[in-house]
Amino acid sequence: MHPSAIENAFALFLRVVAVYCLLFGILYWVRLIGVYDGALWRFDLMPLHWQVAAVTLSAFFPFAAIGLWMLSSWGPVIWFICAVTEIIMYAGFPDMFGSRPLIVAAHVSVALIYAAFRIALHLQRRRAAQ
After folding, report:
1. Which of 69, 103, 112 is CA-nearest to residue 85?
2. What is the Cα–Cα distance from 74 to 11, expressed in whole angstroms?
3. Could you read off the pLDDT of 25-48 as tens digits, one per residue?
4. Which residues of 82-97 are buried (b: 16+ CB within 10 A; e: fewer)?
5. Helix (H, G, I), strand (E, B) or coil at 102
6. What is the dihedral of CA 8, 13, 19, 20, to 10 degrees?
7. The pTM is what?
8. CB 104 within 8 A of CB 88
9. C-alpha angle 75/77/80, rounded to 5°?
């Protein structure tokens, strides 16, 4: 049986999010190894809260990208951990991490689109079962 249009679109969506997760992971690695000049752009110059966040997200974002690209069930879970972490960082503690409303909005948008796809797939499977 061939996948439906919704299933194909969902797979494409997950792979687009995987690329975006890989990009975020690379950006955190760039911050850790100190490629950029400037304040707090090297691991040894970062305050402890940035060190913890940068190390965690530099490992989790590429891991989420792999899971999303392979369309495995754990990929969205790891992405969700990354998204919640960044939302808490940038929306909950802007005095420590700075304010990044575009990153927060991107994570919320991805979560809403993901939920819409899951609902559509559930309804499609329910109709097919009847």
Report:
1. 103
2. 14
3. 999 998 888 776 666 677 888 899
4. bbebbbebbbeeeeeb
5. helix
6. 180
7. 0.90
8. no
9. 110
